[in-house]
Write a structure and sequence with these properties.
Strand content: under 5%
Number of strands: 0
Order of helices and strands: HHH
Distance between the termini: 75 Å
Structural class: mainly alpha
Number of helices: 3
């Protein structure tokens, strides 16, 4: 094995170790919470770690088989994050000042 190949393998091994450590920390963050938003962000990061792990496996094997799978996972992670963010944004939206519960303006005047 040449020096560049040895360095390449060492860097890929280090990347996999970092991904595994990040995954363990991520599972702890999902378990502890404390809010739903923390857990949703953690699940999005979990998708990114899966993609990174597949990329490392592809680099080890020197095979591009996993690239379409990584692309689909990235798309699903993005759409899931946007959906969760929109849900939480609607749920946590503060009420407007100067309106009553009917949505009319002050003193019941329509806007």
């Amino acid at each position: 094995m040449s020096v560049p190949e040895t360095v390449d393998r060492a860097l890929l091994t280090a990347a996999v170790v970092v991904i595994v450590i990040a995954g363990a920390a991520l599972l702890e963050r999902i378990r502890r919470g404390p809010s739903m938003l923390d857990r949703a962000i953690s699940l999005d990061v979990c998708a990114a770690l899966i993609i990174a792990g597949l990329g490392a496996k592809s680099a080890f094997a020197r095979d591009s088989f996993y690239f379409p799978i990584m692309l689909v996972l990235a798309f699903l992670g993005f759409t899931g994050s946007v959906g969760i963010a929109r849900f939480i944004a609607v749920r946590d939206r503060p009420p407007r000042h100067g309106t009553d519960r009917t949505g009319d303006g002050p003193e019941g005047e329509p806007r």
